[in-house]
Amino acid sequence: xxxxxxxxxxxxxxxxxxxxxxxxxxxxxxxxxxxxxxxxxxxxxxxxxxxxxxxxxxxxxxxxxxxxxxxxxxxxxxxxxxxxxxxxxxxxxxxxxxxxxxxxxxxxxxxxxxxxxxxxxxxxxxxxxxxxxxxxxxxxxxxxxxxxxxxxxxxxxxxxxxxxxxxxxxxxxxxxxxxxxxxxxxxxx
Length: 189
Hints:
Family: Belongs to the TMEM47 family.
Strand order of the largest sheet: 4-3-2-1-5
Radius of gyration: 22 Å
Number of strands: 5
CATH architecture: Up-down Bundle
Main location: other
Number of helices: 6
Order of helices and strands: HHEEEEHHEHH
Largest sheet: 5 strands, antiparallel
Subcellular location: Cell junction, Desmosome; Cell membrane; Cytoplasm
Distance between the termini: 33 Å
Membrane topology: Multi-pass membrane protein
Strand content: 5-15%
Structural class: alpha+beta
Shape: elongated
């Protein structure tokens, strides 16, 4: 943003936009039924963060059980949900921070710190889920952690990367606001 001379007024909304994309990915992960799926036919198992569904044969009915009956299911859902809520709070704070004409760079660094906390909670939920699911629930067939679980990891990685950007942005305050004279690499004969 700074190195290549992008104007601050044109690119000030890039970081809040990326946070918004992270929020969308988090919603997909929370609502998606593809945390764990059968890898091959016949598809006999499908799980989300909230429930595990099975069917005995190809044409049979799905029977679902809630994962909230397990302590680890509640812990995984709670920690991932706390991380998601912190991400939504960071998104709202970033909108406020970048909407103000005089940018408060210490406020932006605080958003970066909060993003790191959100990433810790999200990663805790993303680690608890597969470890306890595979050890405590009987799985039939060949299963894989699927697309919704991948969206959860994408959200956590975005929280970490955007945390670095928000924390490092205040180091370039003068360049962003245009308070530095340009340096010309010109040598006179």
